[in-house]
Amino acid sequence: MMTLAEKIDRGEFVVTAELGPPQSSNGDVIRRKAAHFRRGIDGVNITDNQTAIVRLSSISAAVICRQEGLEPIIQMTCRDRNRIAVQSDLLGAAALGIGNVLCLSGDFTSFGNHPEARPVFDMDSIQLIAAVKGMTEGRFLSGDPIKTPPSFLIGGAANPFAEPLDARIHRLEKKIDAGAAFIQTQPVFDLEYFFRWLERVRERDLDRRAAIIAGVMPVKSAAALRYMQDNVPGMRIHPDVIARMEAADHPEETGVREAVETIRALRRTEGIRGVHLMPLNWESVTPVLLDAAGLGGSEQKEE
Amino acid sequence: MQKAGHEKGKTPVPDGIILQRLSLLLTWKNFIFFYTLRVESDVTPGLLVSLVTVDKGRPGRAGRIISRILLFGEDLIKKPLFRCQQCGECILSHTAFICSQRCPKRLRNGPCGGTRDGGRCEVFPERTCVWYAIYRRSRLLRRGVLLDAVEPMHNWRLEKSSAWFNVFTRRIGPPVLFLRKQNDDDTRGKN
Ligand code: SF4
């Protein structure tokens, strides 16, 4: 079984998927969700208290995923940890066998269920990427050496749909300079706009220096799309997509078809090295999606 | 799920264009302050720095008094002009004279992924994203190259201290006031 890092190294098309830990101490929820990701998925992103709602911790969920034979990518946000906690958690994650980390700024605390909490933001995502990179090279942020440095495949996020576009490209470049090996994007619902962004990325040769993994989100209904458009900052949804979902008799099927078409279009595109599936609470659709898109690989081996 | 500070369907009020122009004008005033500061720190480092020796990152008694006086003056100018947040590690000159520390996440390296349509802040939709404004004005003032460098992590020991004092004592670099000609053409002008 090849690891995510090896696959990215070889330039193969990778598929990652997102798994949200539960708001409880029930590890079986993770196992149940993980069961849908056994085939064809190269890495499972474990969200870190997404939208600032308290959930089972990302690293613990990643360990459960590893027990299930999946390769986890932990997400690490700057919202809840200062630089001491970040480094300590990373050392712990490495000791538990976790080899991938996606560095994010994180949703602001006011979006979650503890809006009164103190937002930390001791560093931003670029500085976090640089910090992780430094740690893999055997340096703490203080400059002290690490005896056994952790080894991580470092990822960053990009939002091709938020304004202003030049700041997006600029920041992406900074992230790659800082050491990001792969970049996962926000879900694509507007291919035209996405390709415009990608063109700018290619202009600066960024797609060669890091693997761009485009987000794809299957949705169940037009209402869900509209909700996201109104409530998720920095989301861009093409009006045609909403119209098609609205007109559909079986919105779920149409949702899958839309996602499959997006995957196909992305796969044909130069500069896209993989897709990142975000089936929010709809994990069971993943195998269907992969089969329809012709990406359903072989069963992952148990470790 | 609770949503503090987010009312659905609320249309954001655009910033007053006059205020924007005004603040742009006023920044020139601040140039002078920065400039005198820079000259002084270049010409008389011996006297001033010896007066305010920084021992293990902490200024001595004289230093603390000078720092307090400077901070008072700095606040008088930078608070009304830039809504300075007293980070003590001023990067105003890198960010086209818009204080980046007004960002709720206090990002120092560009906008987060949540900027809304029309450059609204993710956290407070009624505000303009400061980084959106910074990129826009950097283009206007042709100071885009200054955004290239990755700002290091904020030194929280300098929080609530005088940035001018910190420039004197060489704890932070001096502001970049004028760019040399060849740096002027920056490629990120086209959106
Ligand atoms: S000292 Fe810090 S907070 Fe104050 S204006 Fe400068 S950058 Fe902004």
Total strand segments of chain B: 2
Please list the strands of the largest sheet of chain B in the order they lie side by side.
Answer: 1-2
Main sheet summary of chain A: 8 strands, parallel, barrel
Greatest interface and its participating residue counts: A-B, 43 and 44 residues
Query: What is the oligomer described by this structure?
Result: heterodimer
CATH class of chain A: Alpha Beta
- Number of helix segments of chain A? 12
Please describe the structure with a list of short key phrases separated by commas or semicolons:
heterodimer; A: 303 residues; TIM Barrel; eight-stranded parallel β-barrel; 12 helices; 14% strand; globular; disordered C terminus; B: 191 residues; 2% strand; binds iron/sulfur cluster
Give a nutshell description of this structure.
Chain A is built from twelve helices and eight strands. With 303 residues, chain A is α/β, with parallel strands linked by helices.
Describe the structure.
The complex is a heterodimer of chains A (303) and B (191). Helices cover 42% and strands 14% of the residues of chain A. In chain A, strand 5 (153-158), helix 6 and strand 6 form a beta-alpha-beta unit. Chain A has a single domain (4-293), classed as TIM Barrel (Alpha-Beta Barrel). In chain A, strands 1-2-3-4-5-6-7-8 form an eight-stranded parallel barrel, surrounded by six helices. Chain A has helices at residues 4-10, 27-35, 58-67, 83-95, 125-136, 165-178, 191-203, 206-209, 222-231, 239-247, 251-267, 285-293; strands at 14-19, 43-46, 72-77, 100-104, 153-158, 182-187, 211-216, 274-277. The N and C termini of chain A lie close together (10 Å). Chain A has 303 residues and is α/β, with parallel strands linked by helices. Chain B has 191 residues and is an all-alpha fold. In chain B, 39% of the residues lie in helices and 2% in strands. The longest helix of chain B has 27 residues, at 17-43. The A-B interface holds A 51, 53, 78, 83, 105, 107-108, 110-113, 115, 119, 121-127, 130-131, 141, 157-159, 162-167, 169-171, 174, 177-178, 186, 230-231, 233-234 and B 1-6, 8-9, 104-119, 122-123, 125, 131-132, 135-136, 139, 147-148, 150-154, 156, 188-191. The structure holds iron/sulfur cluster.
